[in-house]
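Exercise 7. Given the encoded structure of a 116-residue chain, write a plausible sequence.
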């Protein structure tokens, strides 16, 4: 499947959880999102507005989830496996919010000396 038809198919099926998605459909949508994300970041940076990338993220959230579910169906897995990504892990920021301990031990007391 080529770039244009793959992205068009994914965006047409943005709320369809049933069925399957091919590898090419998945990877072309990844390339599409990378390009659009870089463009949104550049526009947001030029306008000094960080909301451009946030708006794009919200627009492609549902197509990403449905594509992931259909891709899981293609490998004979249930779509509920997508929820596994919501669980906190030690290397994600959500894990630090839920477990706010200091990984390096007790905080070091700083000594402030006057500048000469």
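Solution.
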């Amino acid at each position: 499947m080529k770039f244009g038809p793959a992205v068009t198919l994914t965006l047409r099926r943005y709320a369809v959880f049933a069925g399957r998605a091919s590898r090419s459909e998945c990877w072309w949508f990844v390339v599409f999102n990378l390009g659009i994300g870089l463009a949104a970041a550049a526009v947001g940076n030029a306008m000094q507005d960080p909301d451009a990338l946030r708006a794009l993220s919200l627009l492609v959230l549902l197509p990403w989830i449905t594509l992931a579910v259909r891709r899981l169906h293609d490998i004979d897995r249930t779509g509920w496996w997508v929820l596994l990504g919501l669980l906190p892990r030690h290397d994600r920021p959500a894990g630090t919010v839920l477990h706010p301990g200091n990984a390096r031990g007790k905080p070091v007391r700083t000594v402030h000396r006057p500048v000469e």
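Remark. The two ends are 68 Å apart (CA to CA). Students should compare their own answers with the one above.
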